[in-house]
């Protein structure tokens, strides 16, 4: 700070949260020095960290010494859909939409994972067919096999077992709290779910569109596509990995791909609609009781009384317009009276 009074420069400290393990008093020292010098010192200080909960605690917990000191906080995001498409086209110019969906499902657009898959080339193959991507990820010494564990154990600490069990249940499409609790032997898990949402940013809470904050019709999703995939296959089939039955696990993933990717396709289109910036709210709609009407995606347009109601199908021929029309009438009666609601099907060809 003294040097920066005389000579402006940028200082970058990576894995800044590690001071918590080495010497937490560093943060108090930094607070004192920063407050003392900030008005005359021309230092551009960049502090990076890979453990989300620790970095959030250091800078956003009002009890911590560096609370309120950050001029700007950047939470790095995955690539958007257009960037994923451009990268895939660079490496596989004639890619199919199903291959695009697979890359999105396996990586979620995280640069590190996309880079590993895109670098998996041979003389005759670019490595980006669905089968080749699965073969590359599911093999002996694959970096993908332990990745989820490495990412999360530092976040969760020694109690990671309960958190892993919750995430394993959610990855298996048990998405309500009673279903998750039943999968864990009816343990009390409300506190852990709250932390997974608020402290770790791993789970997201979804309600029917326009539902009030206190509604009981809540579903949970793993926010990150890669972690969803990792828990669904690498964590769940850990015993197969331990005996090195990679052939069997590859077969399970390939056989399951059509069903699994169909669920991720809905997530893809939600993101596509959000990135278009043409809507003021995007979600799903379902009735918690009674006739169990459900619409995959409901998007409220910028015009106040216009909305889209979307059914997502991998194959368009499975779309039933009359069924969606009946659901739309129910949606109008229950939630969106007076709205003009356009029914639509989105499938692989719309990606």
Question: SS-based structural class?
Answer: alpha/beta
In one word, what is the shape? globular
Mind summarizing the main beta sheet?
Answer: 4 strands, mixed
Number of strands: 8
Helix and strand run? HEHHEHHHHHHHHHEEHHHEEEHE
The averaged pLDDT comes out at 93
What proportion strand?
A: 5-15%
Count helical runs.
Answer: 16
Give the strand order, joined by hyphens, for the main sheet: 5-6-7-8
Distance between the termini: 51 Å
In the predicted model, the low-confidence regions spanning at least 5 consecutive residues are: none
C-alpha-based Rg, rounded: 23 Å
Into which percent range does the helicity of residues fall?
A: 40-55%
Write a concise keyword list for the protein shown above.
alpha/beta; 351 residues; 16 helices; 8 strands; four-stranded mixed sheet; two-stranded parallel sheet; 14% strand; single chain
Summarize the structure in words.
With 351 residues, the protein is an alpha/beta fold. The mean pLDDT is 93. Helix 16 links the parallel strand 7 and strand 8. The strands form three sheets. A four-stranded mixed β-sheet has the order 5-6-7-8, with helices on both faces. It has a two-stranded parallel sheet with strand order 1-2. It is globular and about 70 Å long. Helix content is 48%, strand content 14%.
Question: Which SSEs are present, and which pair or pack?
Answer:
Layout: H1 2-6, E1 9-13, H2 19-22, H3 25-37, E2 43-47, H4 52-60, H5 81-91, H6 97-107, H7 111-118, H8 130-137, H9 147-156, H10 160-171, H11 177-183, H12 190-198, E3 203-206, E4 219-222, H13 225-235, H14 238-242, H15 246-276, E5 279-286, E6 294-301, E7 306-312, H16 321-334, E8 340-346
Parallel strand pairs: 1-2, 7-8
Antiparallel strand pairs: 3-4, 5-6, 6-7
Helix pairs in contact: 6-13, 6-15, 10-11, 10-13
């Amino acid at each position: 700070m003294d040097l920066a009074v005389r000579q402006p420069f940028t200082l970058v400290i990576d894995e800044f949260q590690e001071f918590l393990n080495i010497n937490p008093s560093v943060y108090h020292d930094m607070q004192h020095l920063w407050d003392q010098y900030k008005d005359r010192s021309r230092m551009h200080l960049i502090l990076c960290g890979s453990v989300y909960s620790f970095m959030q605690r250091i800078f956003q917990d009002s009890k911590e010494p560096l609370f309120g000191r950050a001029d700007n906080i950047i939470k790095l995001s995955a690539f958007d859909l257009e960037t994923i498409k451009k990268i895939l086209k660079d490496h596989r110019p004639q890619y199919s939409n199903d291959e695009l969906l697979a890359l999105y499902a396996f990586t979620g657009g995280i640069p590190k994972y996309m880079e590993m898959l895109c670098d998996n080339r041979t003389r005759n193959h670019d490595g980006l067919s669905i089968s080749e991507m699965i073969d590359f990820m599911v093999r002996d010494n694959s970096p993908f096999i332990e990745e989820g564990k490495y990412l999360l154990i530092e976040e969760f600490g020694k109690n990671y077992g309960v958190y892993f069990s919750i995430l394993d249940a959610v990855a298996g499409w048990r998405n309500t709290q009673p279903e998750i609790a039943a999968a864990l032997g009816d343990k009390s898990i409300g506190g852990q779910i709250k932390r997974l949402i608020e402290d770790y940013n791993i789970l997201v809470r979804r309600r029917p569109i326009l539902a009030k904050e206190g509604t009981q019709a809540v579903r949970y999703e793993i926010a990150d596509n890669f972690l969803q995939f990792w828990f669904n296959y690498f964590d769940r089939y850990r015993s197969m990995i331990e005996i090195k039955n990679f052939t069997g696990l590859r077969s399970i993933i390939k056989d399951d791909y059509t069903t699994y990717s169909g669920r991720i396709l809905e997530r893809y289109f939600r993101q596509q609609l959000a990135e278009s910036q043409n809507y003021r709210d995007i979600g799903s709609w379902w009735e918690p009781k009674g006739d169990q009407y459900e619409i995959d995606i409901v998007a409220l347009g910028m015009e106040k009384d216009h909305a889209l109601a979307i059914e997502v199908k991998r194959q368009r021929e499975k779309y039933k317009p009359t069924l969606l029309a009946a659901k739309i009438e129910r949606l109008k009666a229950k939630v969106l009276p007076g709205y003009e609601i356009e029914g639509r099907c989105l499938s692989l060809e719309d990606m």
